[in-house]
Each structure stands twice: as C-alpha cells, then as structure tokens.
Amino acid sequence: MKNVTSFSSPGILVDNYPAAQRSLRIAFVTETYPPEVNGVAMTISRIVEGLHARNHDVQLIRPRQDASDAAETGVRFQEVLMRGLPIPRYPNLRMGLPSKRALVQLWSLHRPDVVHIATEGALGWSALQAAIHLKLPVCSDFRTNFHAYSRHYGIGWLYKPIMAYLRKFHNRTQATMVPTEALRRELETGGFKHLNVVSRGVDVQQFSPLRRSQALREQWGVAPDALVAVYVGRIAPEKNLPALIAAFEAISKNDPRAKLVVVGSGPQQAELQQRLPNAIFAGQRKGEDLAAHYASADLFLFPSLTETFGNVTTEAMASGLAVLAFNYAAAAQLIRNGVNGHVVEIDDAAGFVQAAIDMAGDAAGRLRMGEAAAVTAQALDWSSIVGRFEGVLDSVIHRAEQPYRSPIVAPQRRVV
C-alpha cells in the first residue's frame, strides 16, 4: 500500500513511494543450514543474512539439528525448528519430515508475503503444499543434483523418477532459481519452467591469498618450494574421486615431493586414504581455518561432475589458487583457460590428468593464473547476489498480486 503525505499547500497530495524495495515478510524453508558444513548450507546462510540486513522480515524454517539446537528469535531473524532425522551415511546432516499441517497453522497466524523453498525434501514438499493451500506466492531453488547423484550410488534407474519429481515440484512454484545459465538451459530442455539465473558469491574478505600460512605448510611437512595440491569437498562417490586419484598419482611420479591435502569428510574416506596413503586428510574445516587451507596450497584439483555450482571453485579462486576442473558449473562460467585456471571437457579424464601434470610443473604459470583468479573472484560480491535474489522474490509477489488489481484502462481518444 502507498503512503500518502499531505503538504501545507491546500489540496496537494503527493504519493510517498519507497526509495527501494519494500520490506518483505519472507518464509525461508531449508533442510540444511550452518553449522552443517556444505555448499548449500553456506549459500543459504549468506542469502538469509543478506535479506535480513536489507530489513526484510525473515522467518527461517529448518529441521532441528540436535537436542541442543535452539531457535533464535529477534536477534537476527525468527527461526522455526521442525522435526528431522539423520541422513543415511551422513549422520551430521538432517532431513526434514512431512509438516504440512504445522506450516498451514503457522502461516495462517503469521502470513508471509512469499515462501521460498531452498531444498526439495519432505519439509520442502510440505512447504509447497502449505503455500498452495493458503494461496501464497512461492518460489524455489534448484541447488543440488540429486538426479545426478543417483548414478553414483548404484540407483541410476531412479534417474527418471527423480527428475519427474523435481520437475513436478519446481513447476508448481512461480519461479525457480538456478546458479548458472548452462543449468538453466539443461533444465529448460527437461521441461522445467519459470527459471531464473541467480549466481553465487564468495566472501573475498575471508578467502584471500593473504591467508597463506607458512606455519601450516610446515605442519603439513612440505618445503617452502614444494607443490601442495588441495581438494575441498565431500569424500563421496558423486565427487568423481578416481579422477583426483589419477591426477595426483601422475603429479607424484614427476614430483615425489608434491603433497595432496584433502579437506572434508564422507563415506569414501577410508578408501581414499588407502589409495593415497601419503595424502594429508584434514577433515572438515570452517572459517579462517578453511581459508588458510586453501591459500596455503598451490593448486586446486576439483574433479566433480555433479555440482549445480560448486562454491569451492570460487573459494579457491578468491584464495589465489590456479584451479583445475572440468568444463562444468562454476568452472565453466568463470574460468578462462590459461588465464585464471584450466578446464577440460567433461568426458576427457585423460585430459584432466595431463592438465594436472602440466600445471604442477609450471610454477610461474600457476602463480599468474592464481593472481588472475583472485581478481575474477572480486567481482562475485554477495551483496549483488542477494539483490538479484530479492528481485526475483519481488517479481513473484508482483505477479501473484496482479489478479487482485483493477485493470488499467487506457483513456478513449475523442475523434472530432
């Protein structure tokens, strides 16, 4: 509704339009959130905090992570904790349970302007059904390639049903946000509608070449001039770890002093440790500690082919690392070969290994590409990403309001 201000001059009324976006009541539904450690949780946290900083009223709805997890209200934003269960093989992650009745009751008492659903699990489906029931504007994120993961867990036959579910889920919303133009085209070909590209940012204050630590390198047992390659991510089948193993084994043959640091955890850790017994397994890292692990390395190896974006790519670039990845997701969008990193085609496993050998043997080239990568990352500011996200929310609300507005009828022109 517009505010109307009356001035001293009689008979003059001036519409006082807001200078920027109006403050929105946003119900944000997600099944992962910090302190859970994954790219989706981190991204959602950045978006939620950014919306709150822009004076929007954010209601964060998520599963309770453990018995000590307590909701916060009023300090940053309102949190509503729902029932959840551990995800099989990932006990530190939770999944939501069906909660439509509770959400209908919640949103009937405190009606949001828009519902945003970040994950497509049982809690996300319940939120979608509740929003439709209450005729609330609703939008969603396509953040994780569950359909691609199925191929890596021996259940490839589920690919089509999973895609059918995801298409049904997202097409019932007024907008679905995707992080890259390539993914938008892929999903559009698969029958997804109302797709909007909203990329992801990186914190260049946290991830920076200035975080490089000689003390940490000494802890790893490497000489100042020795090569350190780093991998950051889940140690799981969907991350294409055979390519990582092949690449580092090839590097080691040419340079026995080279060291691989693996940051993360997952169900294939024991197997990877057996294949790479001299690698350093640093476990999960957060904050400045994670930033130091990036910046203290010399080369980032990222073999994954199941990312929707791949936040670790931008974190490595911001840390001043030359990145080797497949021509996919964030790497395809941001890396220019030989300038700020190197990408190989997704079906070229041998090319990935050869590029690893070439980059490992070219210290000057790695340094030049790392410096350029850090410059590229500077443009990925979170405030602009949140602004784009905010714009999509506003457009969804605007479209939902259209049926309730009186049509604007152009005045008839008199012909004399």
UniProtKB/TrEMBL annotation:
InterPro entries in the record: Glyco_trans_4-like_N (IPR028098), Glycosyltransferase_grp1 (IPR050194)
Domain of life: Bacteria
Residues in Glycosyltransferase subfamily 4-like N-terminal domain copies: 37-205
Signal peptide: none
CDD domains: GT4-like (cd03814)
PANTHER family reported in the protein's UniProt record: SULFOQUINOVOSYL TRANSFERASE SQD2
The name this protein goes by in its record: Glycosyltransferase family 1 protein
Protein species of origin: Roseateles oligotrophus
Lineage per the UniProt record: Bacteria, Pseudomonadati, Pseudomonadota, Betaproteobacteria, Burkholderiales
